[in-house]
Amino acid sequence: MAKITLSVIKADVGSIGGHIKPSDEMIDAVKRYIKNKGKGIFIDFYVGYTGDDIAILSTHKKGVLNSKVHKLCWDAFLEAAKIAKKQGLYGAGQDLLKSSFSGNVKGMGPAVAEMEIEERPAEPFLFFAADKTEPGAFNLPLYLSFCDPMYTAGFILSPVLKQGFTFVIMDVAYTKADKIIKLNSPEEIYDIAALLRDNGRFVVESIWSRATGEQVVSASTTRLHNIAGKYVGKDDPVMLVRTQKNFPATGEILCPYAIGHYVAGFMRGSHAGPLMPVKKNSSISFFDGPPVVSCLAFSVRNGKLTGPVDVFDHPYWDYVRNKVAKKAEEIRRQGFSGQAMLPMTELEYTGVVETLKKLEKRFTIRKK
Ligand code: 13P
Ligand code: 13P
Ligand code: MG
Ligand code: MG
Q1: pLDDT tens per residue, range 31-84
Q2: Cα(269) to centroid of ligand 2, in Å?
Q3: What confidence score (pLDDT) does residue 335 get?
Q4: Tens digit of pLDDT for each residue in 215-264?
Q5: Catalytic residue among 31, 234, 245, 327
Q6: Quick check: CB of 251 below 6 Å from ligand 1?
Q7: Whether residue 73 has its Cβ less than 6 Å from ligand 1
Q8: Residue 197 Cα to ligand 4 middle (Å)
């Protein structure tokens, strides 16, 4: 079977009316650029957006972190950023944090999720993109789908799934290099949970089948403030998940998104809000949110994509969206107070630091 690489590279390079959605002209520019310059690099591609983030999904034979693939996407985003600037859009070029391209886009702003796979005779996969949140937003859904028989019936019904999965988890607080740990389900699920509870620090980078050694999940781990040193937008993540056969079924991967769990992001990337599953090419609204996630299903054969199918475009998810909207309303009622706003460790990249510095001088120590 042929080796194929699935790549998603995603960036916010400007949006209409605030952090809402990119313009049609920007999307067209990205598609046109990839179509013209991608010949001989990509086998197939798909361009779409989630909130203000444009994602380029591609298939090719060049492996992960390939400079030609990454440069092509980087340059396509530059084209879109040029248009955003011309149209006076907000945050034109927001995620293009470096002025010159070097090797691959990791550490330059855009989010990346890639995996090189041995294509199965039938190769279904899911492409997730989230906006107004951070990479840790995928921690809980991945834990539930890859560790919990309450969500993945396959742990009871399939002897292959029962052998478990290896989680590769990154400590994103460590900025000098990639700091990772490998933990195995099912034996170490409590250790996995102990890390994944902290969405801001420990992030799932990939998941591998212990039965076959195959990679099942690749997720982005970029932290923009680590690159920029200040708040420049949230690290809206992307993720690829292969499904069926030796992996959880598509529906087992999707079902945790019915929770609408509270994640970091929302207004100014500084609040907690419930993650709402939305349809393809959805925009953003209420309080720059709520945090949203889209999911498109594809099949791939010899690198040729069939799809997408918009999996959250179904009456069941309308019901979920209503419930999640209620959760959003509930937490917004308490404004900046307590759990509704992120802790200072996350806010220290924003302007609130200046206020605290000023106020610190006005504090006095009362004499006993
Ligand atoms: P089929 O029997 O339709 O292939 O479905 C199997 C399955 O995995 C459903 O989750
Ligand atoms: P983005 O990270 O999606 O650009 O959103 C930034 C923001 O501050 C929204 O209020
Ligand atoms: Mg933005
Ligand atoms: Mg965004």
Answers
A1: 999 999 999 999 999 999 999 999 999 999 999 999 999 999 999 999 999 999
A2: 6
A3: 98
A4: 999 999 988 888 888 888 789 999 999 999 999 999 999 999 999 999 99
A5: 234
A6: yes
A7: no
A8: 23
The single residue of 33, 46, 143, 231 carrying the catalytic annotation is 231
CA of 192 to the centre of ligand 2 (A): 29
Ligand nearest to the CA of 53: 4
Question: Is there a catalytic annotation at residue 162?
Answer: no
CA distance 308 to 125: 10
Q: Is 231 a catalytic residue?
A: yes
Contacts of 250 (CB under 8 A, 6+ apart): 124, 126, 243, 244, 297, 311
Question: Cα(244) to centroid of ligand 1, in Å?
Answer: 8
The structural domains of the chain, with segments of one domain joined by +, span 3-358
Tell me what pLDDT residue 205 has.
98
pLDDT tens digits, one per residue of 277-299: 999 999 999 999 999 999 999 99
pLDDT over 80 at 1, yes or no: no
Q: Which amino acid is at 103?
A: G
Q: Is 148 a catalytic residue?
A: no
